[in-house]
Write a structure and sequence with these properties.
The complex is a heterodimer of chains A (about 180) and B (about 140). Chain A has about 180 residues and is of the alpha+beta class. Helices cover about 15% and strands about 30% of the residues of chain A. In chain A, strand 4 and strand 5 form a beta hairpin. With about 140 residues, chain B is an alpha+beta fold. Chain B has one domain: Thiol Ester Dehydrase, Chain A, CATH 3.10.129.10. Classes of the chains: A alpha+beta (about 180), B alpha+beta (about 140).
Protein backbone atom coordinates (compact mmCIF):
# COMPACT_ATOMS: atom_id res chain seq x y z
CA UNK A 1 0.00 0.00 0.00
CA UNK A 2 1.41 3.39 -0.99
CA UNK A 3 1.67 6.36 1.30
CA UNK A 4 -1.33 8.66 1.15
CA UNK A 5 -3.79 5.90 0.39
CA UNK A 6 -3.09 4.03 3.61
CA UNK A 7 -6.23 2.98 5.44
CA UNK A 8 -6.65 4.19 8.97
CA UNK A 9 -9.94 2.45 9.70
CA UNK A 10 -10.86 0.19 6.76
CA UNK A 11 -9.99 -3.39 7.65
CA UNK A 12 -9.40 -6.38 5.39
CA UNK A 13 -12.42 -8.07 6.95
CA UNK A 14 -14.69 -5.15 5.99
CA UNK A 15 -13.16 -4.78 2.54
CA UNK A 16 -13.86 -8.45 1.86
CA UNK A 17 -17.58 -7.72 2.12
CA UNK A 18 -17.60 -5.29 -0.84
CA UNK A 19 -19.79 -6.61 -3.66
CA UNK A 20 -20.90 -9.65 -1.70
CA UNK A 21 -24.64 -10.36 -1.72
CA UNK A 22 -25.83 -10.91 1.81
CA UNK A 23 -28.69 -13.00 3.13
CA UNK A 24 -32.09 -11.67 1.99
CA UNK A 25 -33.95 -9.20 4.17
CA UNK A 26 -37.74 -9.52 4.33
CA UNK A 27 -40.07 -6.61 5.14
CA UNK A 28 -43.76 -7.05 5.84
CA UNK A 29 -45.89 -4.00 5.11
CA UNK A 30 -49.02 -3.47 7.16
CA UNK A 31 -51.72 -0.83 7.11
CA UNK A 32 -50.73 0.61 10.48
CA UNK A 33 -47.22 1.32 9.25
CA UNK A 34 -48.52 3.05 6.10
CA UNK A 35 -50.89 5.26 8.09
CA UNK A 36 -48.45 6.08 10.87
CA UNK A 37 -45.77 7.03 8.36
CA UNK A 38 -48.20 9.15 6.31
CA UNK A 39 -49.08 11.13 9.45
CA UNK A 40 -45.45 11.53 10.56
CA UNK A 41 -44.18 13.00 7.28
CA UNK A 42 -46.89 15.69 7.23
CA UNK A 43 -47.38 16.37 10.94
CA UNK A 44 -48.63 18.77 12.23
CA UNK A 45 -50.37 19.32 8.86
CA UNK A 46 -53.10 16.92 7.71
CA UNK A 47 -51.73 13.79 6.01
CA UNK A 48 -52.15 13.02 2.33
CA UNK A 49 -55.29 10.82 2.18
CA UNK A 50 -53.88 8.64 -0.61
CA UNK A 51 -51.48 7.23 1.99
CA UNK A 52 -53.86 6.80 4.93
CA UNK A 53 -57.59 7.26 4.15
CA UNK A 54 -58.95 3.97 2.81
CA UNK A 55 -62.28 5.39 1.68
CA UNK A 56 -60.59 8.21 -0.22
CA UNK A 57 -57.86 6.01 -1.70
CA UNK A 58 -60.40 3.44 -2.91
CA UNK A 59 -61.75 6.06 -5.33
CA UNK A 60 -58.33 6.86 -6.84
CA UNK A 61 -56.65 4.98 -9.70
CA UNK A 62 -54.73 2.99 -7.07
CA UNK A 63 -57.92 1.54 -5.59
CA UNK A 64 -56.53 1.64 -2.05
CA UNK A 65 -53.90 3.25 0.13
CA UNK A 66 -50.28 3.07 -0.99
CA UNK A 67 -47.06 3.87 0.86
CA UNK A 68 -45.87 7.48 0.99
CA UNK A 69 -42.86 7.73 -1.36
CA UNK A 70 -40.06 7.69 1.21
CA UNK A 71 -41.30 4.87 3.43
CA UNK A 72 -38.28 2.97 2.14
CA UNK A 73 -35.97 5.17 4.25
CA UNK A 74 -36.96 3.14 7.30
CA UNK A 75 -36.59 -0.32 5.78
CA UNK A 76 -34.17 -2.28 7.95
CA UNK A 77 -31.81 -3.40 5.20
CA UNK A 78 -28.65 -1.70 6.40
CA UNK A 79 -28.45 -3.65 9.66
CA UNK A 80 -27.25 -6.99 8.28
CA UNK A 81 -24.41 -5.27 6.42
CA UNK A 82 -23.40 -3.11 9.36
CA UNK A 83 -23.46 -6.10 11.71
CA UNK A 84 -20.76 -7.64 9.56
CA UNK A 85 -18.80 -4.42 9.10
CA UNK A 86 -18.89 -3.31 12.72
CA UNK A 87 -16.88 -5.95 14.59
CA UNK A 88 -13.66 -4.98 12.81
CA UNK A 89 -14.30 -1.27 12.39
CA UNK A 90 -14.12 -0.23 16.00
CA UNK A 91 -15.88 2.57 17.76
CA UNK A 92 -16.63 5.81 15.97
CA UNK A 93 -17.78 9.16 17.33
CA UNK A 94 -20.88 9.71 15.23
CA UNK A 95 -22.64 8.12 12.28
CA UNK A 96 -24.46 10.36 9.77
CA UNK A 97 -26.65 9.87 6.73
CA UNK A 98 -24.65 11.04 3.70
CA UNK A 99 -27.31 10.68 1.02
CA UNK A 100 -29.98 8.53 -0.60
CA UNK A 101 -30.97 7.61 -4.09
CA UNK A 102 -34.27 5.88 -4.76
CA UNK A 103 -35.92 4.64 -7.91
CA UNK A 104 -39.58 3.86 -7.38
CA UNK A 105 -41.09 1.33 -9.80
CA UNK A 106 -44.32 0.05 -8.26
CA UNK A 107 -46.58 1.17 -5.41
CA UNK A 108 -46.16 -0.52 -2.03
CA UNK A 109 -49.42 -1.68 -0.42
CA UNK A 110 -50.58 -3.14 2.86
CA UNK A 111 -50.00 -6.89 2.84
CA UNK A 112 -46.93 -6.69 0.61
CA UNK A 113 -43.91 -8.73 1.57
CA UNK A 114 -40.74 -7.18 0.17
CA UNK A 115 -37.43 -8.95 -0.19
CA UNK A 116 -33.99 -7.51 -0.88
CA UNK A 117 -30.42 -8.76 -0.99
CA UNK A 118 -28.42 -5.81 0.30
CA UNK A 119 -24.85 -5.20 -0.81
CA UNK A 120 -21.94 -3.09 0.40
CA UNK A 121 -20.66 -1.48 -2.81
CA UNK A 122 -17.76 0.68 -1.59
CA UNK A 123 -15.70 1.78 1.39
CA UNK A 124 -13.50 4.85 1.40
CA UNK A 125 -12.00 7.18 3.96
CA UNK A 126 -10.84 10.78 4.11
CA UNK A 127 -8.56 12.42 6.67
CA UNK A 128 -10.12 15.14 8.84
CA UNK A 129 -8.49 18.34 10.03
CA UNK A 130 -8.66 17.17 13.65
CA UNK A 131 -6.49 14.13 12.87
CA UNK A 132 -9.49 11.84 12.71
CA UNK A 133 -11.04 10.14 9.72
CA UNK A 134 -14.35 10.20 7.88
CA UNK A 135 -15.37 6.77 6.64
CA UNK A 136 -17.80 6.60 3.70
CA UNK A 137 -19.88 3.45 3.23
CA UNK A 138 -21.93 2.95 0.06
CA UNK A 139 -24.69 0.36 0.11
CA UNK A 140 -27.44 -0.71 -2.26
CA UNK A 141 -30.46 -2.97 -2.46
CA UNK A 142 -33.26 -3.79 -4.87
CA UNK A 143 -36.63 -4.67 -3.39
CA UNK A 144 -39.12 -7.05 -4.96
CA UNK A 145 -42.61 -7.83 -3.75
CA UNK A 146 -44.32 -11.21 -3.23
CA UNK A 147 -45.20 -11.32 -6.96
CA UNK A 148 -41.55 -10.82 -7.93
CA UNK A 149 -42.20 -7.29 -9.20
CA UNK A 150 -39.33 -4.86 -8.79
CA UNK A 151 -40.70 -2.25 -6.39
CA UNK A 152 -37.74 -0.03 -5.69
CA UNK A 153 -33.98 0.34 -5.92
CA UNK A 154 -32.16 2.06 -3.07
CA UNK A 155 -28.67 3.44 -2.67
CA UNK A 156 -27.44 4.73 0.64
CA UNK A 157 -24.30 6.57 1.68
CA UNK A 158 -23.40 6.43 5.37
CA UNK A 159 -20.72 8.58 6.97
CA UNK A 160 -18.83 7.76 10.15
CA UNK A 161 -16.65 10.24 11.95
CA UNK A 162 -13.72 8.78 13.88
CA UNK A 163 -11.93 11.13 16.27
CA UNK A 164 -8.14 10.81 16.68
CA UNK A 165 -8.74 9.03 20.00
CA UNK A 166 -10.77 6.34 18.25
CA UNK A 167 -8.03 5.48 15.76
CA UNK A 168 -5.93 3.77 18.44
CA UNK A 169 -5.74 0.02 18.29
CA UNK A 170 -6.94 -0.37 14.69
CA UNK A 171 -5.47 -3.06 12.49
CA UNK A 172 -6.27 -1.63 9.08
CA UNK A 173 -6.16 -3.29 5.68
CA UNK A 174 -2.74 -4.33 4.41
CA UNK A 175 -1.12 -4.34 7.86
CA UNK A 176 -0.66 -7.42 9.96
CA UNK B 1 -56.06 17.63 1.89
CA UNK B 2 -56.56 16.67 -1.70
CA UNK B 3 -54.79 18.46 -4.47
CA UNK B 4 -55.92 19.16 -7.97
CA UNK B 5 -54.36 16.95 -10.61
CA UNK B 6 -51.37 18.46 -12.37
CA UNK B 7 -50.89 17.49 -16.00
CA UNK B 8 -47.61 17.40 -17.88
CA UNK B 9 -48.92 20.08 -20.26
CA UNK B 10 -49.33 22.49 -17.29
CA UNK B 11 -45.61 22.37 -16.44
CA UNK B 12 -43.05 24.78 -17.87
CA UNK B 13 -39.25 24.74 -17.82
CA UNK B 14 -37.79 26.66 -14.90
CA UNK B 15 -41.05 26.58 -12.98
CA UNK B 16 -40.84 26.75 -9.19
CA UNK B 17 -42.78 24.12 -7.25
CA UNK B 18 -44.67 25.47 -4.21
CA UNK B 19 -42.35 24.91 -1.22
CA UNK B 20 -43.09 22.74 1.82
CA UNK B 21 -41.99 24.47 5.01
CA UNK B 22 -42.03 23.26 8.60
CA UNK B 23 -40.49 24.20 11.94
CA UNK B 24 -39.01 20.92 13.15
CA UNK B 25 -39.34 20.57 16.91
CA UNK B 26 -39.03 17.51 19.12
CA UNK B 27 -42.66 16.59 18.34
CA UNK B 28 -41.91 16.31 14.61
CA UNK B 29 -38.58 14.55 15.18
CA UNK B 30 -39.90 12.02 17.68
CA UNK B 31 -43.06 11.28 15.74
CA UNK B 32 -41.02 10.63 12.63
CA UNK B 33 -38.42 8.60 14.56
CA UNK B 34 -41.21 6.35 15.83
CA UNK B 35 -42.88 5.91 12.45
CA UNK B 36 -39.58 5.35 10.67
CA UNK B 37 -38.09 3.18 13.43
CA UNK B 38 -35.19 5.61 13.56
CA UNK B 39 -34.56 5.89 17.29
CA UNK B 40 -31.10 7.39 17.18
CA UNK B 41 -29.84 9.57 20.07
CA UNK B 42 -28.46 12.36 17.84
CA UNK B 43 -32.08 12.99 16.72
CA UNK B 44 -33.67 13.00 20.19
CA UNK B 45 -31.21 13.61 23.02
CA UNK B 46 -29.50 17.03 23.22
CA UNK B 47 -27.02 15.88 25.90
CA UNK B 48 -25.90 12.98 23.78
CA UNK B 49 -25.80 15.08 20.60
CA UNK B 50 -23.60 17.74 22.18
CA UNK B 51 -21.45 15.82 24.65
CA UNK B 52 -20.91 12.46 22.98
CA UNK B 53 -21.43 13.09 19.25
CA UNK B 54 -19.89 16.62 19.55
CA UNK B 55 -22.63 18.14 17.36
CA UNK B 56 -23.96 21.69 17.96
CA UNK B 57 -27.39 20.29 18.97
CA UNK B 58 -29.89 17.59 18.04
CA UNK B 59 -30.02 17.34 14.23
CA UNK B 60 -32.94 16.66 11.91
CA UNK B 61 -32.74 13.19 10.37
CA UNK B 62 -32.01 13.10 6.65
CA UNK B 63 -35.02 10.87 6.07
CA UNK B 64 -37.37 13.59 7.35
CA UNK B 65 -35.78 16.17 5.05
CA UNK B 66 -36.20 13.71 2.19
CA UNK B 67 -39.85 13.24 3.18
CA UNK B 68 -40.41 17.02 3.11
CA UNK B 69 -38.99 17.15 -0.42
CA UNK B 70 -41.39 14.34 -1.36
CA UNK B 71 -44.24 16.34 0.26
CA UNK B 72 -43.48 19.36 -1.93
CA UNK B 73 -43.47 17.13 -5.02
CA UNK B 74 -46.61 15.11 -4.24
CA UNK B 75 -48.61 18.16 -3.06
CA UNK B 76 -47.83 19.74 -6.41
CA UNK B 77 -48.21 16.66 -8.65
CA UNK B 78 -51.46 15.31 -7.15
CA UNK B 79 -52.47 11.65 -6.85
CA UNK B 80 -51.83 10.93 -10.53
CA UNK B 81 -48.16 11.96 -10.31
CA UNK B 82 -45.46 9.42 -9.48
CA UNK B 83 -41.95 10.12 -8.21
CA UNK B 84 -39.70 7.87 -10.30
CA UNK B 85 -36.38 8.98 -8.90
CA UNK B 86 -35.24 10.92 -5.89
CA UNK B 87 -31.61 11.65 -5.06
CA UNK B 88 -30.34 13.81 -2.20
CA UNK B 89 -27.07 14.56 -0.43
CA UNK B 90 -27.10 15.59 3.23
CA UNK B 91 -24.32 18.17 3.02
CA UNK B 92 -25.12 20.36 6.03
CA UNK B 93 -26.84 19.62 9.28
CA UNK B 94 -30.22 21.13 10.18
CA UNK B 95 -30.73 21.68 13.91
CA UNK B 96 -33.84 21.08 16.01
CA UNK B 97 -36.36 23.93 16.49
CA UNK B 98 -35.53 25.64 13.19
CA UNK B 99 -37.73 26.03 10.14
CA UNK B 100 -36.62 24.13 7.08
CA UNK B 101 -38.09 24.51 3.60
CA UNK B 102 -38.17 21.91 0.86
CA UNK B 103 -38.09 23.44 -2.63
CA UNK B 104 -38.02 22.22 -6.20
CA UNK B 105 -37.55 23.73 -9.66
CA UNK B 106 -38.28 22.17 -13.04
CA UNK B 107 -35.10 21.67 -15.06
CA UNK B 108 -36.41 19.60 -17.98
CA UNK B 109 -39.72 18.52 -19.43
CA UNK B 110 -39.67 15.63 -21.91
CA UNK B 111 -41.26 12.47 -23.30
CA UNK B 112 -39.50 9.12 -23.12
CA UNK B 113 -40.88 5.70 -24.13
CA UNK B 114 -44.36 7.19 -24.23
CA UNK B 115 -44.04 8.59 -20.69
CA UNK B 116 -44.47 12.24 -19.80
CA UNK B 117 -41.62 13.19 -17.47
CA UNK B 118 -40.29 16.19 -15.61
CA UNK B 119 -36.79 16.49 -14.10
CA UNK B 120 -36.39 18.77 -11.13
CA UNK B 121 -33.68 20.20 -8.98
CA UNK B 122 -34.77 19.65 -5.37
CA UNK B 123 -33.32 20.93 -2.11
CA UNK B 124 -33.85 21.82 1.53
CA UNK B 125 -33.02 25.31 2.72
CA UNK B 126 -32.40 26.50 6.29
CA UNK B 127 -33.63 29.77 7.82
CA UNK B 128 -30.62 31.61 6.37
CA UNK B 129 -31.48 30.46 2.85
CA UNK B 130 -28.51 28.08 2.75
CA UNK B 131 -29.00 24.82 0.84
CA UNK B 132 -28.33 22.01 3.32
CA UNK B 133 -29.64 19.14 1.22
CA UNK B 134 -29.33 19.37 -2.58
CA UNK B 135 -30.69 16.74 -4.92
CA UNK B 136 -32.69 15.93 -8.02
CA UNK B 137 -35.89 14.14 -8.89
CA UNK B 138 -37.80 12.75 -11.85
CA UNK B 139 -41.57 12.93 -11.83
CA UNK B 140 -43.98 11.01 -14.04
CA UNK B 141 -47.15 13.01 -14.81
CA UNK B 142 -50.40 12.24 -16.58
CA UNK B 143 -50.90 13.85 -19.96
CA UNK B 144 -54.07 15.38 -21.36
CA UNK B 145 -52.99 13.47 -24.48
Amino acid sequence: MTAGTESKVITDAARALIGKELEPVTIEIDKTLLKRFAIAVKSPNPPNPLYCDEEYAAKTAYGGIIAAPTLSGGFPWLGPILEQVNPSMGKYRVGLNGGNEYQFFEPIRAGDVLTARPKLTNLSEKPRDDGGVMLVLDLEAEFRNQRGERVLAARQTLLRIYGPDQLQGFRPAGQT
Amino acid sequence: MTTQQLHWEDVRDGQDVPPYSQKVGYMELNRFAGANNELVPIHMDPDYAKDVATLPDVIVMGNLKLAYIANALTDWAGDGGWIQKLYVEYRKMDLVNKTITAKAKVTKKYEQDGKHLVDLEVWVENEDGEVTTPGRATLLLPSRG
